[in-house]
Structures are given as C-alpha cells and as structure tokens.
Design a protein that fits this description.
The chain is an alpha/beta fold. It has helices at residues 54-72, 85-94, 108-113, 149-161; strands at residues 3-4, 24-26, 32-34, 43-47, 76-81, 101-103, 127-131, 137-142.
Length: 165
C-alpha cells in the first residue's frame, strides 16, 4: 500500500494555522489520492476509528448527506481509517458514500497529523480537519462521541473560509 507523508514530530498534533502534511494514500478502489493534486480546492479530511461501527457509520452518513453542499463550497471530502481497501469498499457501498475512503494501514497519516487516541489510547481518535486550497489547516474538530457533528463543523468552517457569492 502506498503511504507517503511528510514527517511530523511524534506527539505533535497539527493545529489551526499549520501546513498539512502531504497526503498520498490509496482509496477503497485502489486509486491514489494526493493532496498536492487538489488544484487549490479545500479539503475536508476526517479520521474515524473503524468501518461499520455505529458512531463511524453516523459520521460517514452525515458527510454523505452533506456532500453536495460541501462540494458546492468547492471542497473535496476524504475519510481516513486504518481499515483495508476491501473493508472500505464494503462500507462505502453499503452506505452509498460518494467520497473516497483512504486506506491508512499502519496509521502513518494518522501519526503525521498527530491525531490523538481516545479512551486512554484504546481507540483511534475521531478528528476532522478543514484544509484550505493552499494546504493550511483552518479548522480542527475533535469529538469521539458525536460523529454527525463533524460534518456540521466542517460545513460551518468552509462557509467562513469560502466567500459567498
């Protein structure tokens, strides 16, 4: 599995105003996704613990239900977890997710972003990043228990970021 990211010191969480690490990972279909090929579009990147768990399903479906609005604001949406491509494929198909799910086996991207663990580090954390078209993190939302709030937070952050016509 291709997995190339810029190194971030271990334990250093990416914050608002930081440059996001380069993202180069394959999605559920084996397509390589690269953040440096977004051509100036903002990116909503959400890390979630595991495919097909209740909270993650609610979060993924909230992003699905908001996808058209997020796209209207010019944003790409990518989900990320440590599950493999087959698991992502089943999850995406089962819930008709219109965006890619990146395969981060080994959690290299999660580590590069410094995504904190949850519940005494027993679970991978649930964190959403809104990254502007220049690659700068403009919003970070960390909430393990309220998956659907991540889509609402991303939408609000994008509305502040993108001038309305």
């Amino acid at each position: 599995m291709t997995s190339t990211v810029f190194e971030t010191p271990v334990g250093k969480a990416i914050q608002v105003g930081d440059r996001a690490p380069l993202i180069v990972l394959k999605d559920q279909n084996g397509t390589e996704r690269r953040s440096d090929q977004l051509e100036g579009r903002p990116l909503v990147l959400f890390f979630y613990p595991k495919d097909d768990t209740p909270g993650c399903t609610m979060e993924a479906c909230a992003f699905r239900d908001s996808h058209a609005e997020l796209q209207a604001l010019g944003a790409e949406v990518w989900g990320v977890s440590g599950d493999d491509g087959a698991s992502h494929g089943r999850f995406s198909q089962r819930h008709q997710l219109p965006y890619p799910l990146l395969v981060d086996q080994g959690n290299s991207l999660r580590q590069a972003f410094g995504v904190p663990g949850a519940l005494l580090n027993l679970l991978p954390g649930r964190v959403t990043y809104v990254i502007d078209g220049e690659g700068v993190v403009r919003h970070v939302f960390n909430n393990l228990l309220d998956g659907p709030a991540h889509a609402r937070e991303a939408m609000a952050a994008l509305r502040r970021l993108v001038p309305q016509a």
